[in-house]
Amino acid sequence: MYESNTLDPSTPTYVLSNLLELNVDTTTLSTTLLGYDAYSSQFAHDDVARTYCHISSQLPTGYRREWGGLEIIGGGVEAGYAGSPLVTLSCRTDGQVLTERLQPTSLGLQALTGVGRTRARQLRDAGFTSRERIATTDIATLAAVRGFGRLTAERVQQSAQAIANNEVVRTTEKPLPSGKPVYIDIETDGLSPTITWLIGVLDGSSADGEYLSFLQTDPDEPAGALEEFMHWYTTTASHRPLVAYNGWQFDFDVIQDHIIEYCPQYETDWTSIYRFDPYQWAVKDGNAILPGRTNKLEDVATALGYEPMAEEITGEMVARIYQQWMTNQSSATEPEWNTFEIYCEDDVRGLATVYEALKASSRIVSTDAPSRDTGASTTQGQLSDW
Amino acid sequence: MSSDSNTSDSPITAQALERTVPRYEGQLKHAEIISAEDGKYVDSRTVLRGDLAVRFSEAIGDLFTHQARALDQLAAGNNVCVTTATASGKTYVYALQIARNYLSDPGSTALLLYPTKALSRDQEQALTEFFAVLGLDLAVAVYDGDTPQDRRRHIRETADVIITNFSGVNAYLGHHTRWSSFFSSCATIAIDESHTYTGVHGMHVAWTIRRLRRILAHYGSDPQLVCTSATIGNPTEHAERLTGKPFTVVDEDGSPRGKREIVFWKPPLDEAVLEADATFEDFRNAQTNPVREAGSLLAHFGLHGLQSLVFTRSRKNAELGAKYATDAAGTHPRSGQLRAKPYHAGLGKETRRNTEYQFKNGQLDGLTSTNALELGIDIGSMDTTVLTGYPGTRQSFWQQVGRSGRGDSDALSVFIARADAIDQYILDHPEYVLKDGVEEAVIGLENNPVYAQHVLCAAHEQPLEDADREWFDGERLDRAVGMWSDAGKLTGDLSRSVRYMGSPRPQSEISMYATSNTQFDVRCPDGEIDMEPVDRERAYRDHHEGALFLHSGAQYEVIEFEEDRPNPYIAVREVQTNEYTETSSEKTIRDLESEATRDLGDGYQLSWGTGIIEIHYTHHQRKDIRTGETTTSLQPTGLPPLELNTHLVWIELPPSIETTILEEATNMDPASLSDGERMEVFGGGLHGAEHGMIKLTPLELRMDKSDLGGLSTPRHAVTDVPTWFIHDAVEGGLGFSKRIYDQFGTIAERTRERVASCECTGTNGCPACIMDSQCRNQNQYLHTEATVHVLETVLEQLG
């Protein structure tokens, strides 16, 4: 193994390999880190190795644990193999590693709605090698591609235009909810959350709406943020639609569970709120095609021109930091609350950007286009986007 | 059905069957008439509160004595397990308890758990009607995988009684907050057919119940439990291991019984063709295949206008049975059209529903089914049932027998013995199945792989704390938490809280019938196949590349075996051959660690503990179905060895025993025997003892003999002395080998009796004593006399 002598000791050093792997033996109730001895013996100085972050691509993303004094981090097992997502790692100067998953199918022509491997090949065979080309070509030419008909061609072109022009393309005339929306985003302690500790709310427009944050720093009081938020909503915003991106897959369910668990007095108030999920409405119900490399909120909002205020972080990382705080509350583990409030604000302002674009987009490209097929591609969308 | 079913020719009694069956060759060995029996009753007013007693006695009548006793126990605050006969009104016990609770607290709820979805639907209707008759406004609803999404919330929030199954509970615990109102009022949990929860499935259910009780406690509930069970040897222990609560058992049956006959039937065996050194194949060919015999009986009954249900022991035989029946109808003196169909869980849901419907409506003369039809699926009643072989437990035997009988008319059941040790034992001793139940139902709570999965789910449902050691077996929880923390699935420590960090919904990773979740999908690229996924062990054994198998009346060949991918699969194609596949394997046992040992003195030692069993399915070849002759050369399977880290029991013998056994078994000077002869006799004795004990253990324990495996050798690499092993056939163990360790003497004695009294000639044994169809050594080196001497010696030492 090569070790440089010119590393800057003031910033973290990352070692990336595929040498460390977990063996979880449920029969003996023990987990071992395969390859550890051979790996650790490669470092000339133990104490130096201990200051490094050791990433192995054979460990699952999100994995982080100390083994024999070494900080071991998961870099995404099976990344990019047999249809599984590609993983990008951002190794930050504060020692945090961000992982992002990207479906191979969200790249190139396959990023277009209705285009899988077969149609991508048919398009390439017909000379359409870029999305821009598809966006601007004559619809009749596109419809003449082998395996395409007019409806398919229209649908594929709409998708290409959305991406190429960074705009929302409406495919139906279904109206958005009336009423002034309240945008929300929540932070929890993971994908199987036990606490909703931050609810970011945007009251007003993306550009100049008022941002409110309902924060609960004490993990032993899981009702705190919810009670404050529900009090605010019922007294000042009642009857306005509550909007959350991917809300039907996460935020709305989590809030409901936690209200029942921690502050059941608000259950009826909660269930009578009109809730709206632009992701569900646009992508899954097929009412609009969103721009952006993926349908993730950050990608869509950025494509629509939103400029984030904060450095990029992920929900996964936020949850992990709060978990550490829950496990051991000390000044060393106390999260920088302000950073997360800004992160959350970025999300609700981005969300407002998307919602406003949907609202503004009255251009129905094809009024006779059927609602888009939400079959197999939707399932993948869920997995890859979240 | 035609109209002549009540004429004197109708083969609905043992006598008539003997007289009418074509080409009768003395198959009938024993006929048992079970006469009708009067019921024993108690006035419901002595048990139930006034208004309820009046409504019950008006609508139904008096209570049976066992119902009254169970209700009294429940009133005293105990958990009750009722183990009386099928159709003895066990349901009324918990239904009346629910009614009582409702009258004293209308807000109370009850959760009822049934082993199958079909049974749930039947009971929903029955209970709704029952409560209506009592004039009680109780809402009963099934809530399971088939419940529409838009109905679910309504049911959770309004039903008084919810009927579901344990796969459902496992999943619903993942979002228990939605159940908070139902759970916080839960006063009763009833577990129906609780004896069915044994083996791997039993372990999953036992841990699911602990998770459920833990969440109920979180909502402030500690409901009373009612188990209803068929007769088993250890009802109290079983209910307590299943649920973790103390139980009172009610087993004195007060219900009346109708008249039926049970016939014990031995398929004709052409002994003349058998040489003294006959092989397993020879026996198989000499005896009329019991499934073929069942097919003939089904045809005979059907052509006399009697509808029959034939139980077979495998999916393959269910398929074959229907075919044999149709063939037999063609050569029957009454020759005519016979409508018979196979039924088993490997068929798709739609095919099964369709067959159930046709049978129920009389469009079929018969069904040949696996035990998939044993539990309560409503296909109506039929005139006769035919059992091809002992179903493995006395309780299953009665359940299968009990399916026949229409109203108060006569019912007939035929038990056809296979050429198998247990079946032959039962032909010799029909009293064994006719007397009280003896099998014990075993739940191996010590299996770690299953336990560990449920710990992970529990952490997801509610963070784990110190107090949770009470639910999850004390210090063992610390080890599981340590393992999952190192694996990145849990974080924190028990003194504060251990939280779940893995992917969402770990409950969906649990397969309630397997210890691992590796399952192979079955695909047919150039055709169609409607077959459920197969688990890893079975795929290695029966579905390696080149293997032939039957499914839904068609024969298939495995053309692709893909394991190294996220969703393993096998690809098959339909073929037509007259062959079957025989797979050979090698087995080794290593890394033995004993956890309990009994030194029997003089170099005899009995041990129980853990070890690694390596099974390598190395080669396969094809054989002709009729002649058993090899039709292809030995082909490699291309599979790596399977490793099983599991529990096993083994007995070590002093090397000096070899000389003694050789003398006793051959009456010759051991010194004059060649090495090969010594192996044949002494090795054959050890091998026979191992086989015999595995084959007869199901007489004591509720299990299938394929839940066990074995190995014997005159000198084992680890123990260095003559040894035989019996191991649990599942990763992490099933609890059976421990029971064999505990009951070694009883099982060895039964085995000795069976082998000593077997009528087979020569010393190679026969399928009725020590030959075993699952033997991977083609039953090579078996010696009956040496087996008896080996067992006698060990029994003497046991004292």
Describe the structure.
The complex is a heterodimer of chains A (386) and B (799). Helices cover 35% and strands 18% of the residues of chain A. Chain A has helices spanning 36-40, 46-49, 117-125, 131-136, 139-143, 150-165, 224-237, 251-262, 267-271, 278-284, 297-303, 315-327, 337-360, 376-385, and strands at residues 13-17, 21-25, 30-34, 52-56, 64-67, 70-74, 86-91, 97-102, 169-170, 182-188, 196-203, 210-215, 242-243, 275-276, 288-289. Chain A is built from 14 helices and 15 strands. The model of chain A is unreliable at 366-386 (pLDDT under 50). Chain A is of the alpha/beta class and 386 residues long. Chain A has 3 domains: 13-102, no CATH class; 105-165, 5' to 3' exonuclease, C-terminal subdomain (DNA polymerase, domain 1, Orthogonal Bundle), CATH 1.10.150.20; 182-360, Nucleotidyltransferase, domain 5 (2-Layer Sandwich). Chain B is of the alpha/beta class and 799 residues long. Chain B has 5 domains: 3-36 and 258-438, Rossmann fold (3-Layer(aba) Sandwich); 41-250, P-loop containing nucleotide triphosphate hydrolases (Rossmann fold), CATH 3.40.50.300; 448-509, Arc Repressor Mutant, subunit A (Orthogonal Bundle); 519-577, no CATH class; 582-798, no CATH class. Helix content of chain B is 35%, strand content 22%. Chain B contains 25 helices and 31 strands. In chain B, the strands form 7 sheets. In chain B, strands 1-11-16-15-12-14-13 form a 7-stranded mixed beta sheet, with helices on both faces. A 7-stranded parallel beta sheet of chain B has the order 6-7-5-8-9-4-10, sandwiched between helices. In chain B, strands 25, 26, 27, 28, 30 and 31 form a 6-stranded antiparallel beta sheet that branches. Chain B starts with 13 loop residues before the first helix and ends with a helix. The relative contact order of chain B is 0.09. The model of chain B is unreliable at 1-6 (pLDDT under 50). Chain A binds chain B through residues 22, 24-33, 59-60, 62-65, 74, 78, 82, 84, 189-192, 194, 253, 256-258, 260-261, 264, 323, 326-327, and chain B through 175, 177-178, 180, 448-449, 452-453, 460, 463, 476, 479-480, 482-488, 491-493, 496-497, 499-505, 565-566, 645-646, 731-732.
